[in-house]
Amino acid sequence: MAGRVRAYSTRICVETNAEGPMTSDEPTITEPPRAYRGVVKVLRPVLMAVTKRHWSGVENLPRTGGFVVCPNHVSYTDFLALAHLMYDSGRPVFFLGKSGLFETPVIGRIITAADQIPVYRGTERAVDAYRAAVQAVRDGKAVAMYPEGTLTRDPGVWPMKGKTGAARVALETRCPVIPISMYGPEQLLAPYSSRLRLFPRKTMRIVVGPPVPLDDLYGRADADAAREATDRIMATITRQLAQVRGEDAPVEAYDARKEGAPAFGKPPRRWRRRR
């Protein structure tokens, strides 16, 4: 019997025929939670009004099964641009977010009801986010994981050296890893800035690449495999971004540890002045 895939339009959920049978490791995509759809109903018209969009490569998004989306991180607003593209492309995305957001009175209830995933950094519960991401992928969801782990500290707003969390999820689940390069959200709200620049309208340039080849690393659970997978992911994101920007990327990715920058949170003021 032919499989069925739910493909989301911007307003309603319609069903389309998929080619071939649905296998057990490719769950049928289900409608996102009511809270998720409510947020979309509020925010999508705003994004349509205040941004322009230049999207390419959306055909690289898998139509069935779970996968990991790996974007570069250039602005506190870039998750909105990514969510907009993913929803309009028929694959609503689920994010990992700082646990503090889930503890706020209103926003916390909304994002919890929308099935987003809390991250408890630097605590015994940090592993919970990893387990939840693995399960979400196995449930057939598109899970967004920023490999950099935080906003870029690179003075030129290029991707930094990546962390291995997204790669480890991909290697455990053997799911596709889709590299996404974004350029434009940082013009709306610069990294670590609180000054929003809505007008003139900014163009959200987003490139969706084909899955990063990781097949040769499957079956390995060692740190070297995770590091190699992460480096491949970051190299692909950076290469795509260089094409979008029409510039040469730095030869070596910015490494926060080597620069003495804190792992998370706002970097020192003296560093921000360099930008």
Account of the 3D structure:
- The protein is an alpha/beta fold and 275 residues long.
- The chain has a single domain, classed as Glycerol-3-phosphate (1)-acyltransferase, CATH 3.40.1130.10.
- Helices cover 35% and strands 17% of the residues.
- It contains ten helices and nine strands.
- The chain has helices spanning 34-50, 78-88, 99-102, 107-113, 126-138, 165-173, 185-188, 223-245, 256-259, 269-273; strands at 4-8, 13-17, 51-56, 67-71, 93-98, 117-119, 142-144, 177-183, 202-208.
- The strands form two sheets. The chain has a seven-stranded mixed sheet, sandwiched between helices. It has a two-stranded antiparallel ribbon with strand order 1-2.
- α5 packs across α6.
Fold blueprint:
Blueprint: E1 4-8, E2 13-17, H1 34-50, E3 51-56, E4 67-71, H2 78-88, E5 93-98, H3 99-102, H4 107-113, E6 117-119, H5 126-138, E7 142-144, H6 165-173, E8 177-183, H7 185-188, E9 202-208, H8 223-245, H9 256-259, H10 269-273
Parallel strand pairs: 3-9, 4-7, 4-8, 5-6, 5-7
Antiparallel strand pairs: 1-2, 8-9
Helix pairs in contact: 5-6, 6-8
Specify the biggest β-sheet. Answer: 7 strands, mixed
Given as residue ranges, the uncertain stretches (5+ residues, pLDDT < 50) are: 1-25
* Record field, number of beta strands: 9
Which structural class best describes the helix and strand composition? Answer: alpha/beta
The SSE order reads EEHEEHEHHEHEHEHEHHH
Strand content: 15-25%
Radius of gyration: 18 Å
CATH architecture: 3-Layer(aba) Sandwich
Total DSSP helices: 10
At the first level of CATH, the class is Alpha Beta
Kindly report the average pLDDT value: 86
State the domain count: 1
Termini distance? 57 Å
CATH H-level name... which superfamily? Glycerol-3-phosphate (1)-acyltransferase
Helix fraction bin: 25-40%
Strand order of the largest sheet: 3-9-8-4-7-5-6
CATH domain fold name: Glycerol-3-phosphate (1)-acyltransferase
User: What general form does the structure show?
Assistant: globular
